[in-house]
Amino acid sequence: xxxxxxxxxxxxxxxxxxxxxxxxxxxxxxxxxxxxxxxxxxxxxxxxxxxxxxxxxxxxxxxxxxxxxxxxxxxxxxxxxxxxxxxxxxxxxxxxxxxxxxxx
Length: 104
Known about the structure:
This protein is mainly α. It has a domain at 26-92: AhpD-like (Up-down Bundle), CATH 1.20.1290. Helix content is 69%, strand content 0%. The radius of gyration is 20 Å and the shape is elongated. The N and C termini lie far apart (56 Å).
């Protein structure tokens, strides 16, 4: 794999990343679940695998993982809704000007 950062940058990144895993505010369980949610939100497949393995090792229940997935889905859906509303507002498009769907 090509070197993406200098050795100094890589070392600083590793220190930063470690500080997010072993932090002073979140429990280990909370940190794993937040990591999983973030990995899902940014669509990082290797990160999702990593955090799912951490979930299993930490004894986190599948229902907890399902709740994280549901929350990420809800936030994502809300973001798409707001993004669409922004397009309507920016370009002054009114959905009321569109016709209705034919009755079945």
